[in-house]
Amino acid sequence: MLDESGGREQSLLLRRSEGKLPLHVRLSFATGHILNVLGVAGIWYAYGVAYYSKVLRLSPASVGTIVLAGQAAGALSTPLVGSWSDNSTGCRYGRRKVFHLMGIVAFVCSFFFLWHECLGCSGVGEPYQVLYFSCFAAVFEFGWTAIQVSTLSLVPELTRVKSRQVELNSMRYGVLVGGTLFVFVSFWILLDRINNGSTDSNDLTPKDKKLFWIMALAVTAVGFVLSLPFQVFIREKKQDGGEGGKGPTSLPWYRWMLNPLFYMVICAFISNKVIALFTQAYLPFYLLDTLEMDRASIAKGPLFFYISSFIVTVFVKRARRFTGDKMAFFLGLALVWACLIWLWVKQPTDDHYSHFNLSRDAVYLAIVLLGAGSATIMVISYSFIGYLVQDYLGSSGFVYACALFGDRLSNGVLIKIATHTASDVSKSELPEFYRGVLVYVGFGASGLGLLALVAMSLYSALAKWKRSESASVDVMYVRGH
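Above: the chain sequence. Below: its structure as tokens.
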């Protein structure tokens, strides 16, 4: 399924037979996950752990429990949402759109409460606050899952042409970058304008609560409005009008579980998500505690990450024509490795207040490399999944749900382990602990991606060899007769 040399003739025929999707449809699809972009990529992963630790002053174990509760709810709901979405073929509104709408409602009803102190329980014990935030995190993660699965599952249904699937994934990631730029620029401005009144202006404090709930309100309002075009302009193909009255071809779940390529693609996807999201969760700690930079750095760092990501997504579609998907994936991993080595050797400086210091601000160049590598891996990994399900569109929701299940569970468990371990580390050792967590997890995730890439390459080579052997046997049989 991922043999780059095979299927080109079929792709050319599909390109000729399929009309290009109108621009307003492509843009509506790309903005369909804008709530997830602003809420999850923009705030939840970038600042969630830092907010509960530094602003609400919850213990590391409690912070890990909140994050894990949300991630576990998201992980458990992904297979269910994917299965329900695949099997809702009789839904006239659209089997993907109805779950997208459910996700919007769940997100809007829960997101603000995650960024406001516990209503009615802020003065009680920490366990009650953990339960309060965990419940809202679970609802929020269900909303994220419903939006994510419904939008991703539509990619192979909107077009079966590989290059156009890559275009849709690139536009989708472009919206992710644009949305996160909006969040981080806004956050940078708020950090500069809103003084927390603390003598320690280089860190986040409980007096920064207002800053976060303002951002939560803005994200909810803007995301809700920009999600509506997806509901208005996306038209799903009828699932009961196919040949013989049947819907798109599907594969039973147990057949997917017996397919080795399924696990390789899922591992590549998980690798990309851990690199992109776990590193964002601990980047504020690395910048504030390890490198002792000012608090504006926690807005600048993600900002540079997504600017470089946006630039890369513009060129990935063209570059893959020359390099191929697997080589592009490897080049993305190489950029990530270069960043991690840089983060490992970077040391803090004494200059915290000048507008520019090359030694201090060189860390942003490393973050640029991380953003470029992460963007390359993300676009290609989404394309891997699209190729995997293109002949079984009826099962696309299940496959994407399994990929997202691995994403949510792996990130949740890793953050829980990191926060739990941090509670046993002395305050003087925390700066180096955050450096180690960021680098070691990054290398581990990229190593998983490399193993998946090698396995896919060997699998494709073996499949090609078997086809050539089979063809040779057929030729010998014909000649013998």
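The chain is about 75% helix and 0% strand.
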